[in-house]
Amino acid sequence: MSTLPSTLRVHQYIGLQPGPRLLVLGAVHGNEICGTRAIERLLAELDSGALCLARGTLTLVPVTNPLAYQRKQRQGDRNLNRNLGPKTAPADFEDHIANALCPLLDAHEVLLDLHSFHTGGQPFAMLGPRDNTGVLEPFAHAAAEAKLAAHLGVTRVVEGWLDTYALGVERRRARHPDASPLLLDAAYGVGTTEYMRSRGGYGVTLECGQHDDPVAPEVAYRAIRQTLALLQLVDAPLEAPPAGFEVLRLQDVIDLEHSGDTFVREWQSFDPLKAGELIGHRHDGSEVRAEHDGFIVFPNPRALPGNEWFYFARRSTRTLL
């Protein structure tokens, strides 16, 4: 039996001139290693002198969930990127990681969190809300966050995570009041970027491609270099944002109700859907169809019952720059 990891490995570079404080995370989910490989490449450049930090602070965490990484799976005891926050009485491995990770997030201004996804599709960025003073996710750095997303090298951006997750929780409460308390808590949707925003910073999740796509580490590496240049942490040219951004807004989340629920085909993120199109079948034979024209996002054929099976998105009117 393997031993539980007992440390979180963190690399930090502090410039002698003042500047922004950037945190870059890899492998928040243990089977999403593109960020890990990109960070390892950057560490080699920093340590060799091929790249120099000119100002500010850069903190790199190549493996944020070492237990999940050790097991080569999404999570250890639970999903680290849900219900993220300090725990006075840690009950599982991810709670202990949260108690090390949250102070790191507290100490930084900007977060770049590098992920990948289950099924095929092109890379995309996850953006937070517009500036607001609401209860769910108040925010005051939408312009800076959108500018960061625009410079990461992708042409597709998705917004609406936390309020869509809260909608799914409301549905779970009505259908499954005896489910795990975590799954019935809207705050369970809080991950790294949501926590960062709650602490006065901002951050972007970059989904770099499918888990095993050999190009995904390059997407992650380029995004880190672009972020360093944008924040002027290094003296390097900043590439212009790509043309033709597509901004989508998550509208709904559909849970897997039973292990016998199945998709009608191998969906990829952002496959278009027509109103009424058949998406899958429940274990009892009932149909799951699209209510509107839109796109399927994060289809997960290996989802656990009571967890997200797929998301539904529609086009947004939001612009980035």
Low-confidence stretches: none
Shape call: globular
Q: How would you state the average pLDDT, rounded?
A: 94
Number of strands: 14
Radius of gyration: 19 Å
How would the blueprint of this fold be written?
Layout: E1 11-14, E2 21-25, H1 34-48, E3 57-61, H2 66-71, H3 93-106, E4 110-117, E5 124-126, H4 142-150, E6 156-159, H5 161-175, H6 192-198, E7 202-210, H7 216-230, E8 246-255, E9 262-263, E10 272-273, E11 278-281, E12 287-289, E13 294-297, E14 308-315
Parallel strand pairs: 2-3, 2-4, 4-7, 5-6, 6-8
Antiparallel strand pairs: 1-3, 5-7, 8-14, 9-11, 10-13, 11-12, 13-14
Helix pairs in contact: 1-7
Give an overview in words.
By secondary structure, this protein is of the alpha/beta class. The protein has two domains: 11-246, Aminopeptidase (3-Layer(aba) Sandwich), CATH 3.40.630; 251-315, RNA polymerase II/Efflux pump adaptor protein, barrel-sandwich hybrid domain (OB fold (Dihydrolipoamide Acetyltransferase, E2P)), CATH 2.40.50.100. Helices cover 25% and strands 22% of the residues. The protein is built from seven helices and 14 strands. It has helices at 34-48, 66-71, 93-106, 142-150, 161-175, 192-198, 216-230, and strands at residues 11-14, 21-25, 57-61, 110-117, 124-126, 156-159, 202-210, 246-255, 262-263, 272-273, 278-281, 287-289, 294-297, 308-315. The strands form two sheets. An eleven-stranded mixed beta sheet has the order 1-3-2-4-7-5-6-8-14-13-10, sandwiched between helices. The chain has a three-stranded antiparallel beta sheet with strand order 9-11-12, with no helix packed on it. α1 (34-48) packs across α7 (216-230). The longest helix is centred in the first third of the chain and has 15 residues, at 34-48. It is globular. The model has no long low-confidence stretch (mean pLDDT 94).
